[in-house]
């Protein structure tokens, strides 16, 4: 099967245990892929701000599918961005009413992340592998409100999420998904992070927008992932790799296994591809 595009998740997949990557090694792989006219797509639950910071110096050579597929960004501009609709936000606020602080409900605009007063500091003390400067930049965007339902005055909301103890993630996501019957979907990306996505919006949807413009079919894509928010992506493409550290659900849908992100498994597979 001919591979015409590569897509990869970030945390727990492409990034190492410190939330970084070997830039020299990646540059060599990217050169080889570009010689073969194979685009490289970053498919992540992260926002475009962190991704551009991570890939400074490479940003013009990559296509970004950010915010779990709802934001496609290339060549310095947004191609597609799907905001969360008012009725969807209201439904989530109503569902978690009285627990906004407890579940650290986050409503994210272009520049800020709004949370209820009393909520904790997102990802503090979790050991999330992220550069301290990037974590500081993320947390500097957090604004605590006396009443989170005041969100309509803030502008478009592009992301809904929770941060809860990892031991509670399965219970919270299962109960949420049963209550919303697929109209909204809760998925985890690890470290207690839960994203709430509109029906049909996921990494595969974002990648589909990219492939349509490039006249590439899903069976010509090689993709990597490790967490439950990668399931649609890996189910969509022709050549799918679960990382050795992936969840059981991810391993069940992937066709192949890659070494752990701690062993630079993505790089190992791609080096074999381009040699």
From TrEMBL:
GO cellular component entries: cytosol
Gene3D superfamilies (alphabetical): 3.30.1240.10, HAD superfamily/HAD-like
Keywords: Hydrolase
InterPro entries: Cof, HAD-like_sf, HAD-SF_hydro_IIB, HAD_sf
MF terms in GO: magnesium ion binding; phosphatase activity
Keyword tRNA-binding included in the entry's annotation: no
UniProt keyword Hydrolase present: yes
Domain of life: Bacteria
PROSITE patterns hit by this protein: COF_2
Record's protein name: Cof-type HAD-IIB family hydrolase
